[in-house]
């Protein structure tokens, strides 16, 4: 998957934020990686605000240095978001803040917990404060500019990676084979006349190796069943 930019938006009385999920910053070794990085550079320069999200539980390494060197070349304001503050001691968070302050001129440094919701309200307020005044790009009832098939495939892919992210690389892809609507009787008694719309979805999960396929299927097919169940539960809300 070339991990195209996926725009989503949040619209409130304060304004509208459009989120763009980009491929991770990395040294491109192959043509696919070079193409992914071209998306990254384009988005970094054309966005109004960049959020750099780091994991407070991980050690600072060469990859972090490369990311910061890349960000030094852009003029877009940057927020540093230090995640997982709910499981890391305050002293370590303060050391991280001091370290990153010396490495890059961040517009804001915000310790957060995506899991617990810590300081996400502050992040939202500061985001609105740093966006320019402009007309809405998305109407209130439109959550994305992506097709329904694409959104459905991304939900299935997210469920796969949530279970096997340590074992499986991010080259996993999902293709929607079938997406059909059908009107069926909502009651076992067909004479009741009540109808309901049923959506049939069939998807294929692509992985690189046979070992990856066995991981996704799981022992006696248990994992693929779990993935299917969780995906269906989320799809019902779309």
- Percent of residues in beta strands? 15-25%
What's the number of helices?
7
User: How does the major sheet shape up?
Assistant: 3 strands, parallel
Helix-strand sequence? EEHEHEHEHHEEHH
CATH fold type of the largest domain: Rossmann fold
Mean pLDDT across all amino acids:
82
**What is the strand arrangement across the widest sheet?**
3-4-5
- CATH homologous superfamily (4th level) name of the largest domain: P-loop containing nucleotide triphosphate hydrolases
CA radius of gyration is 21 Å
* Main structural class: alpha/beta
Uncertain runs:
1-5
What is the number of strand segments? 7
* Alpha carbon gap, first and last residue: 23 Å
| Helix content, binned percent | 25-40%
Keywords: RNA-binding
Domain Era-type G: 1-133
GO molecular function: GTP binding; GTPase activity; ribosomal small subunit binding; rRNA binding
GO cellular component, one term: cytosol
Structure description:
- The chain is of the alpha/beta class and 238 residues long.
- The protein has two domains: 6-129, 3-Layer(aba) Sandwich (Rossmann fold), CATH 3.40.50.300; 148-235, GMP Synthetase, Chain A, domain 3, CATH 3.30.300.
- 37% of the residues lie in helices and 23% in strands.
- It contains seven helices and seven strands, in the order ββαβαβαβααββαα.
- The strands form three sheets. The protein has a three-stranded parallel sheet, sandwiched between helices.
- α5 crosses α7.
- The chain is globular, with a radius of gyration of 21 Å.
- The two termini are 23 Å apart.
- The model is unreliable at 1-5 (pLDDT under 50).
């Amino acid at each position: 998957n070339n991990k195209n930019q996926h725009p989503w938006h949040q619209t409130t009385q304060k304004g509208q934020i459009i989120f763009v999920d980009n491929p991770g910053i990395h040294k491109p070794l192959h043509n696919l990686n070079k193409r992914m990085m071209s998306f990254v550079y384009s988005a970094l320069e054309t966005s109004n605000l960049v959020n750099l999200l780091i994991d407070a539980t991980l050690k600072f390494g060469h990859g972090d240095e490369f990311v910061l060197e890349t960000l030094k070349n852009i003029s877009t304001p940057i927020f540093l978001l230090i995640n997982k503050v709910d499981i890391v001691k305050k002293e370590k968070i303060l050391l991280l803040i001091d370290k990153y302050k010396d490495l890059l001129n961040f517009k804001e440094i915000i310790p957060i917990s995506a899991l617990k919701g810590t300081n996400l309200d502050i992040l939202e307020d500061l985001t609105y404060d740093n966006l320019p005044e402009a007309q809405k790009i998305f109407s209130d009832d439109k959550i994305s500019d992506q097709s329904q098939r694409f959104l459905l495939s991304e939900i299935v892919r997210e469920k796969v990676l949530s279970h096997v992210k340590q074992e499986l690389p991010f080259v996993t892809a999902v293709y929607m084979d079938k997406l059909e609507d059908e009107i069926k009787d909502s009651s076992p008694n067909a004479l009741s006349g009540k109808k309901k719309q049923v959506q049939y979805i069939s998807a294929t999960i692509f992985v690189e190796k046979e070992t990856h396929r066995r991981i996704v299927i799981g022992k006696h097919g248990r994992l693929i069943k779990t993935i299917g169940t969780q995906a269906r539960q989320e799809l019902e809300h779309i």
